[in-house]
Amino acid sequence: MRKGIPVSPGVVVGTAYCIDQVFAPTSSDRLDDAEVASELARYQAARHRVAVELHALQQKVSRQVGPEEAAIFAMHESIVRDVAFTDRVEQWITEDRMPASSALGRLLEEYTRLFDRTTDEYLRERVNDLRDVVVRLSAHVSDVLHPSDGPPLPRPLVLVADELLPSQAVALGDLEVEGIVTQAGSQTSHAAIIARSRGIPAVCGVPSVLAHVQTGDLLVVDGRDGTVIVNPDAETAAAYRKIEREYLHLRDELAGNREAPAVTADGIALQLLANINDVSDAKAAEAMGASGVGLFRTEYLYLTHPSIPGEQEQLEVYQAIVDDSPNRSVTIRTLDIGGDKTVPYLGGRHREANPFMGWRSIRLSFEHPDFFSTQIRAILAAAAYAEKKGGQVRILFPMICNLEEIHRLRAMVRRARRDLHERGIQVPPTPIGMMLEVPAAAVSIDTMLPFVDFVSIGSNDLVQYLMAADRDNPKVSHLCQPLAPAVLRVLHQVITACLESNTPVTLCGEMAGHPRAFLLLLGMGLRSFSMSPALIPSIKSLAAQLEIPQARAICQHAMRLKTTGHVRRYLRGKLKEIAPDMSLMEIE
């Protein structure tokens, strides 16, 4: 049994597929003589495509962002074209009969061992450059997310990895994955967010799991309490399969309420919105009965794109999101990059001691105004498109700290609107919102509310900033508790201020979809919640069993409790009274 961080509820018993083993040069990987020439040609073709791709990317980034940011791609192109690099890979393909992906993995291992011995920071950084090149090349010669070699693995599949890259995470829609286990990550990592949006049970932060799991092993994954069991005995497997059946039955039963309105037991209407990353998530939101999209994370468009998406390309994505979203209602958040999400052309190689509190999000966008204005224009053009379709687009700016930033952003929106008007595009009134995730903004929220049309509370970052604890640092992540008394006091203050000023407010952090947290938020007066699409049916069901006075009383009692443990235990008991089956859908 291994223990990790529970990040997506549910239970699955399935077959492990370790995607990190794709580079392992095992004896079974040896090529036949007849396969060597075609494998060599495949590698050479991939090398040429990557070199051309990197050269074009370097020129595009230099033109749109700046030559300094583009230099990284020139370096990567030089690695791809390096004769010594290529000779080693081709030698292993021809002489050792290794597939190109295994040869690339072997080369990376050798360089990693070599550079691990040096204390020179510059040389150690070159390993990261080499790793980026190897990943890019490997993507052209193999598909790690589709296990095609050997006999088919028994379903369901449980993906096991060190961590899940954004591009891999988004590609999960093409693979029948029903469980995820990673060595790295947290409740707000890429893997966690994607798993919740897909309704896939997942556990992150499992120490050394790849050292104990092989592809083909039987795994139990309990996304409720973070338990992972490797090759369980028959009795244990049978017990968890029973829980899995109960979970699937409840999930399917709850999904049947998609047409029902989101209302409390005493008839108070709620907005249950969806957090999405792409078009497939928007379709899932529609299928799960969401009333709209409360948060479209545009950074995944950049993280999974081989270069910089241009204005027209962004607009086409936003239009597709509008078309597939419930009621064609979408809140689009501008680029929230930095911290745990980086791209090379926007500071991806910029080292910071505290990246979550450094040059990220709106701060990074301000430093690249031309780049940022392109996105604002694309969003406003999408708002014009949505109006024609009978919908609405709202624009949301992340990590706002002070009123000066809001004034600056409103000026940028006015300029973008004028630019579009000169092109003949009439942009309708587009609500401008602020993401509240910085304590300074929470303390001074009353000064900002007159200058924004709505507020979205980002509880993921707000919690870590309030607790001064990096949520991705396993040494302190236990402090990042959304039910901590300090967090509850700040949330209550912000929600009350918004209600008193008649400013629409939504909580779009992950706690919006947690049943225990929902009891409190409803009692605080919140009526708009945005969450992973898969969580909407369970929250809608819970809301239908709650009356507002009851939620208010629960909130008032919880606010008087002194410790996080007391709050959690109290809410666990209340949830069991109100909705006994909901424990299957809850993360511990």
Structure in a nutshell:
It contains 23 helices and 16 strands. It is an alpha/beta fold and 588 residues long. The chain has three domains: 2-17 and 147-238, 3-Layer(bba) Sandwich (Glucose Oxidase, domain 1), CATH 3.50.30.10; 31-97 and 100-141, PtsI, HPr-binding domain (Enzyme I, Chain A, domain 2); 259-585, Phosphoenolpyruvate-binding domains (TIM Barrel, Alpha-Beta Barrel), CATH 3.20.20.
Describe this structure in words.
The protein is α/β, with parallel strands linked by helices and 588 residues long. Helices cover 50% and strands 13% of the residues. The chain folds into three domains: 2-17 and 147-238, Phosphohistidine domain (Glucose Oxidase, domain 1); 31-97 and 100-141, Orthogonal Bundle (Enzyme I, Chain A, domain 2), CATH 1.10.274; 259-585, Phosphoenolpyruvate-binding domains (TIM Barrel), CATH 3.20.20. The protein has helices spanning 33-64, 67-81, 83-95, 100-116, 121-141, 166-170, 190-198, 209-212, 234-255, 279-287, 299-303, 311-324, 361-367, 369-388, 403-422, 439-443, 445-448, 459-467, 485-500, 515-524, 536-543, 548-560, 564-578; strands spanning 2-3, 5-8, 11-18, 157-161, 177-182, 202-204, 218-222, 227-230, 271-276, 293-297, 329-333, 392-397, 432-436, 454-457, 505-507, 528-531. The strands form two sheets. An eight-stranded mixed sheet has the order 1-8-7-3-4-5-6-2. Strands 15-14-13-12-11-10-9-16 form an eight-stranded parallel sheet. A hairpin with a 4-residue loop joins strand 7 and strand 8. The longest helix is centred in the first third of the chain and has 32 residues, at 33-64. 46% of the residues are buried.
